[in-house]
């Protein structure tokens, strides 16, 4: 179960649009910064394949300027 955290920077003036788009992706939790166009993003997916698909969807958002991975964690399956 990959859990990853990112900093997502929106294109200037499009923070709300980016936040809405990210919140519409079911595997995302979003926390906005109060004074910047930055969002803290946490993703939680069942496996690496789903994680890759989700990351592609996030990177395709036209209101996204930059996505930076901060931390990643994967629970091994026994």
SSE blueprint and pairings:
Blueprint: E1 2-10, H1 15-23, E2 28-32, E3 38-44, H2 48-59, E4 64-74
Antiparallel strand pairs: 1-3, 1-4, 2-3
Textual characterization of the structure:
The protein has 78 residues and is α+β, with helices and mostly antiparallel strands. It has a single domain (2-74), classed as Lrp/AsnC effector binding domain/regulation of amino acid metabolism (RAM) domain (Alpha-Beta Plaits). Helix content is 27%, strand content 41%. The protein is built from two helices and four strands, in the order βαββαβ. Strands 2-3-1-4 form a four-stranded antiparallel β-sheet, covered by helices on one side. The radius of gyration is 12 Å and the shape is elongated. The N and C termini lie close together (12 Å). The relative contact order is 0.34.
Kindly summarize this structure in a few lines.
The chain is of the alpha+beta class and 78 residues long.
Mean pLDDT value: 91
First-residue to last-residue Cα separation? 12 Å
* CATH architectural name: 2-Layer Sandwich
Q: Which structural class best describes the helix and strand composition?
A: alpha+beta
Give the CATH superfamily: Lrp/AsnC effector binding domain/regulation of amino acid metabolism (RAM) domain
User: Under CATH, the topology is which?
Assistant: Alpha-Beta Plaits
* Amount of beta strand: 35-45%
CATH class: Alpha Beta
Compute the number of helices.
2
Summary tags:
Alpha-Beta Plaits, four-stranded antiparallel beta sheet, alpha+beta, 4 strands, 2 helices, single chain, 78 residues, 41% strand
């Amino acid at each position: 179960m990959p859990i990853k955290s990112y900093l997502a920077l929106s294109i200037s003036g499009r923070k709300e649009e980016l936040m809405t788009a990210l919140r519409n992706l079911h595997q995302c939790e979003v926390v906005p910064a109060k004074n910047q166009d930055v969002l803290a993003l946490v993703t939680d997916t069942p496996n690496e394949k789903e994680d890759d698909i989700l990351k592609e969807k996030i990177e395709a958002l036209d209101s996204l300027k930059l996505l930076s991975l901060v931390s990643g964690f994967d629970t091994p399956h026994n």
